[in-house]
Design brief:
mainly alpha, single chain, about 240 residues
Length: about 240
Amino acid sequence: MNAEDVDAQPNVANASVRTDADADGDATDGVDATEATDTPHVEPLTTTYERLRHSTDAAELHEFARRPLPDRGEQAAFSRATALLEAVAGNPHTPEEDRVFLASTMPFPNVLVKLSEDPSAVVRQAVAANIDDKNWLVGRLTKDDTPAVRDEALRNKRTSWKMRLEGAQDPEMDVDTLDFLSRLGAELEPDANVVLSSMVRRAVALNPNASQEILERLSADSSDEVVHAARRRLGQ
């Protein structure tokens, strides 16, 4: 039974117990009741998704990007909205500031994956800083072609220790990020795994880009292995 059959059924049942006079007098009421049960047309999800994915209307894309999400309790509406955000996020005609907004605020992997492949480094950097990233996604961004994106990913708490260790070993790593990595398990994230964090600090001490200040600080580290590596670099 389709929606029109359902709407019509109550009128048919009522008609069976009405007199002819009642039917003549209630004709207008019957039209009103039918109109009251009409629901607004909702475009199929796949149709809307494809339209937004290929849209060149920046104003429409902006509106979808900034539209408040339905309550999670409204499961169908919420799922639809997040699916459409994926289409908006993957469309290069969506204004960059809106893509940065989505990259910074959205917790949904399907949206963030799209944005992690964005041609704009600013957008990818916003994804790298998002603490709702899955560790595999932020880990992938530690290998980005743009240093600012890699650095931001290494600072994200979702980054695995394996990725942090590889970053600390990278001979092209910038001194600011090495400084950050050299503090992990000490001033930063003091509750971090002792062995893993000391491995990262030791790798920093052995990195040719580690500054004098970093090496001097690590030469007084709580880990003997880190101290030995730093002092060897200092020629002590």
